[in-house]
Amino acid sequence: MKKKITLIGAGQIGGTLAHLIALKELGDVVLFDVAPGIAKGKALDIAQSSPVNGFNVNLSGTNEYEDTKNSDVIIITAGVPRKPGMTRDDLLEINLKIIKQVAEGIKKTSPNAFVICITNPLDIIVMALQKYSGFPKNKVVGMAGILDSSRFIYFLSQELNIPPKKIRSLVLGGHGDSMVAILGSTEIEGKKIDELVKEGRIKKERLNEIVERTKKGGAEIVKYLEKGSAFYAPAASGVEMAESYLKDLKKELPCAAYLNGEYGFKEIYAGVPVVIGSKGVEKIIELNLNEEEKKNFAKSIKSVQNLLDSAKKIDPSLI
Question: Active site residue: 175, 253, 265, 289, which one?
Answer without folding.
Answer: 175
